[in-house]
Write a structure and sequence with these properties.
The complex is a heterodimer. Chain A contains 8 helices and 12 strands. Chain A is α+β, with helices and mostly antiparallel strands. Classes of the chains: A alpha+beta, B mainly alpha. The interface between A and B is large, with 94 and 101 residues.
Chain lengths: 329, 566
């Protein structure tokens, strides 16, 4: 019993905590489209409540009023009633036509991005999101301005995911082998949850991050700082972040375990045996060449499958990765 | 087991004791025995699926790990879905109740192809073995929808499971084929199409979908196996395939499949409402034709499962088509309500389930409006709102109708009455528990809780706990039901031929029926003319007196009365 009271108390508390929202059942309205979606939701809700209450009231009235008394009694033979049947077919039909139209109109607003939208590239992968900004900066949290619309151009590296930002009422599948788009006009600065909504395996429910909506003018300031993020961190930490951001971990372990490429554990400074029989010491120049021209020297026992990172990483990034490798001795 | 007919005549063998031994059951061609074997099998599947559901709900009691890890949770909800859908709900009403009732309602001795009927049960068993083997050796974790490319990449037993579903598909096709032919060819003298009980219209519409849609599922699953086992690139983009193509194929079957699940339920409800309010069904033609309309529309709405992945043009078309299904569903609901008006309503367990159906299906149907409308669907797609919506339709609709049908036909199936009061209490528990469990999930969905989540953010914790409590209440209701039904088999009061005063033909033979159903093929009346029976206070039976009376307007009723509907 205590548990039940506890639950009710918690629910009441939740109602209070969310007074910032318009309703207890919807997330905060943080985009220009959210209010419109909620308006349609409430319209359908009240239409549904009206019909549901009508049905239940009639049902209860009939049950109370028309109970069996004589086991042989039979109700009047009312086989049908054409005017009544036309009415209860035509009215719902008219209502759903209106709902369809409003839903379609609202959806077209959600589906067609404005031409001047700020573009961010999104990669979904098991089980995280990567957001790449026009200047090449990559982050695992989505930062967006509140003073201009944003388009996300999305793709997946493995299975189907779905980008879902409840506060913006926005959702689109993210698929391997093609690009999908989602756009929104964030209006309320703040932090909101961002989910993966298409089941993608073990870490599906952990594929959660945040949208950080910056106040007017603050996005650019943040962007300038973020573009130099390597300079603001210790080199080994920056290297670790790049290791994950650039996807190095898909082929190179840091534990000594075998992978598609050589492990990084104890790699720096060691003597490498090459496919052509020669040996090279893994120094700074060798690492730099392996990142920018991976096909130049192939370590024995591995296939030449690594893509080049020319243009995707700058000198400070290479330096950070080398520092990180040095820490893995 | 020996039986006595209700009026104390000499003992006569019935279908249950006509032939002894387990072998006589396993080789039987009697539709009633096959129906009972299906009933036992699907109830076992229902128990298994229900236990998995309780584990899922228990895991969700708290954020993070409660009892199992993420991989196990993913397997639990996948198996819950696959077992409930393919092993329980799809065969539930047609193959178990339908098999028993359909030939009796037609006044026939059996279905058109009794051997095919037995084969479909064996196929069900084979499919179930595949599914259960895949549970034991490494459960599938793809969700019951097997979406590619996840399903072609996961290391779990996808091939085993899909082969099981493939075989179950044939079981379903054979049942459907059998029913279509039986209804076309074995109707008795006097039973025109417009004098068929609405249960048969429901089963007929269902059978058409089973025959037309299920092969597409079979082909799709074979393609999936070809991709997984042979590396043929059809759906996986890394092999040059298209992942969305799989979803189109899959839902081209699986959307009609939800009508395979709901249409027979609507047939059951039409019988229950009319019989237990002792009043002719209102709008017979409208109900019959709306079943056919739903069956037809069911083939053109599948795209609404992909509103977050298709082009705006595709979405617009499928949204418009989706709303078309809502009209015949609404029409049926209003017809049932109008049937109650000025009836003589008995509030027994079958009727309570029928009323619960109207309530719950009402919510399930109306919440479909939020999902058919594009702008609101985008927010609600793949959230708990979907989970709640389909449980209101599939559980609140189909399972509740199944329970109502079981209670209604139980005396006929087994010749025993169950404890009416316990049945009412169990119905109430299931109804309340169900609403606790799933209404909270509508709110979770609108708040933005995505489905198939092992873990969740703290905002959602309280509602999840409410939902789990509800599932425990439901479980109590189900165990109570199992208890009094099993008890009735051994110690229940003997059932009379026609305890409800129903006018369909299955009530014109002994309870349980004799092996060949009827001594003489009965003449078919208008199935909702309740003046053909007269209540006998001594036996509690409604004795058949035949159609011989005149209604309020001076029209002859019964056999000829059905025509004078104007």
């Amino acid at each position: 019993m205590n548990l039940v009271f506890d639950l009710i108390a918690q629910l009441a508390l939740m109602g209070v905590a969310q007074t910032a929202n318009k309703t207890f059942y919807m997330p905060p309205q943080a985009s220009a489209s959210a209010a419109h979606v909620d308006w349609l939701f409430d319209l359908i809700l009240w239409i549904s409540v009206f019909f549901f209450v009508l049905i239940v009231i009639l049902m209860v009235m009939f049950i109370v009023k028309y109970r069996v008394k004589d086991p042989n009694a039979e109700g009047p033979r009312i086989y049908h009633n054409t005017p009544l049947e036309i009415t209860w077919t035509a009215i719902p039909l008219a209502i759903v036509v209106v709902i369809f139209w409003l839903g379609f109109k609202g959806y077209m607003d959600l589906a067609v991005p404005p031409a001047n939208a700020y573009e961010i590239q999104v990669t979904g992968q098991k089980w995280k999101w990567l957001f790449t900004y026009p200047n090449g900066y990559v982050d695992e949290i989505l930062h967006v301005p509140s003073d201009r619309p944003v388009t996300l151009v999305m793709t997946s590296t493995d299975v189907i995911h779905a980008m879902y930002i409840p506060a913006f009422r926005a959702k689109t599948d993210v698929m391997p082998g093609r690009y999908t788009k989602i756009w929104f006009d964030a209006t309320e600065p703040g932090t909101y949850p961002l989910f993966c909504a298409e089941y993608c395996g073990t870490g599906h429910s952990a594929m959660i991050t945040e949208v950080l909506v910056h106040g007017p003018g603050e996005f650019e300031t943040w962007m300038d700082e973020a573009a130099n993020w390597i300079a603001t961190m210790a080199p080994e930490e920056a290297g670790l972040k790049l290791y994950s951001m650039l996807g190095c971990q898909q082929c190179h372990s840091t534990t000594g375990a075998a992978g598609i490429g050589p492990t990084w554990a104890g790699l720096f400074g060691s003597e490498r045996k090459m496919k052509d029989g020669s040996t090279i010491v893994a120094d700074e120049n060798y690492i730099r060449q392996s990142i920018l021209e991976p096909q130049a020297e192939i370590v024995a026992g591995f296939d030449p499958v690594m893509p080049t990172f020319q243009g995707r990483i700058k000198d400070d990034g290479i330096a950070a990765l080398i520092a990180y490798m040095k820490s893995l001795q | 087991m020996t039986t006595t007919t209700y009026d104390g005549h000499a003992e006569e063998k019935n279908y249950l004791n006509a032939k002894p031994g387990i072998w006589s059951w396993l080789t039987t061609l009697d539709h009633k025995r096959i129906g009972v074997m299906y009933l036992i099998s699907i109830l076992f599947a229902f128990f298994l699926g229900g236990m998995l559901a309780l584990l899922v709900r228990t895991e969700l009691l708290t954020p993070g790990k409660t009892i199992v890890d993420a991989d196990t949770y993913n397997q639990l909800f996948t198996l819950h879905g696959a077992i409930m859908i393919f092993l329980f709900i799809i065969p539930g009403i047609p193959a178990a109740i339908g098999n028993f009732v359909l030939p009796l309602m037609l006044g026939a001795k059996d279905v058109a192809f009794p051997r095919l009927n037995l084969l479909s049960w064996y196929l069900w068993i084979t499919g179930a073995v595949f599914a259960i083997v895949s549970m034991v050796v490494g459960a599938v974790d793809t969700g019951w929808t097997f979406y590619t490319p996840y399903s072609t990449q996961t290391s779990t037993q996808v091939i085993n499971m899909t082969m099981g579903v493939f075989i179950l598909g044939f079981s379903s096709i054979f049942t459907g084929l059998n029913f279509v032919v039986t209804i076309h060819k074995l109707r008795p003298a006097g039973m025109t199409w417009w004098r068929m009980p609405l249960m048969l219209w429901g089963l007929y519409a269902t059978a058409i979908i089973q025959v037309l849609a299920t092969p597409v599922l079979g082909i799709t699953l074979l393609l999936l196996v070809a991709e997984r086992a042979l590396g043929v690139g059809i759906f996986d983009p890394s092999l040059g395939g298209d992942p969305l193509l799989y979803q189109h194929f899959f839902w081209f079957y699986s959307h009609p499949a939800v009508y395979i699940m709901i249409l027979p339920a609507m047939g059951v409800i039409s019988e229950l409402i009319s019989v237990h309010s002792r009043k002719t069904i209102f709008g017979y033609h409208a109900i019959a034709l709306s079943s056919v309309a739903i069956a037809a529309f069911s083939f053109i709405v599948w795209g609404h499962h992909m509103f977050t992945a298709m082009s705006p043009m595709g979405n617009m078309i499928f949204s418009a088509l989706t709303f078309s299904v809502s009209i015949p569903s609404a029409v049926k609901t209003f017809n049932w309500l109008a049937t109650l008006y000025r009836g003589h309503i008995r509030l027994n367990a079958p009727m309570l389930y029928a009323l619960a159906f109207i309530f719950l299906f009402g919510i399930g149907g109306l919440t479909g409006l939020f999902l058919g409308a594009l702008a609101t669907d985008i927010h609600l797609h793949d959230t708990y709102f979907i989970v709640a919506h389909f449980h209101y339709v599939m559980f609140g609709g189909t399972v509740i109708a199944f329970l109502g049908g079981i209670h209604h036909w139980w005396p006929k199936m087994f010749g025993r009455m169950y404890n009416e009061n316990l049945a009412r209490i169990a119905c109430l528990l299931i109804f309340l528990g169900f609403n606790f469990t799933f209404f909270t999930q509508f709110i979770l969905g609108t708040m933005g809780m995505p489905r198939r989540y092992y873990d969740y953010i703290d905002t959602f914790a309280t509602l999840h706990q409410f939902s789990t409590m509800g599932s425990y209440i439901m479980a109590v209701g189900f165990f109570l039901t199992a208890g009094y039904l099993i008890h009735s088999l051994v110690a229940g009061e003997r059932a009379v031929e026609n305890p409800w005063g129903a006018a369909t033909l299955e009530w014109r033979t002994a309870s349980p029926p004799i092996e060949h159903n009827f001594h003489e093929t009965p003449d078919a009346n208008y199935p909702y003319d309740y003046s053909v029976n007269r209540y006998n206070p001594e036996t509690g039976n409604y004795d058949y007196i035949g159609p011989s009376r005149v209604d309020d307007h001076g029209h002859a009723v019964g056999f000829h009365g059905a025509e004078s509907t104007t």
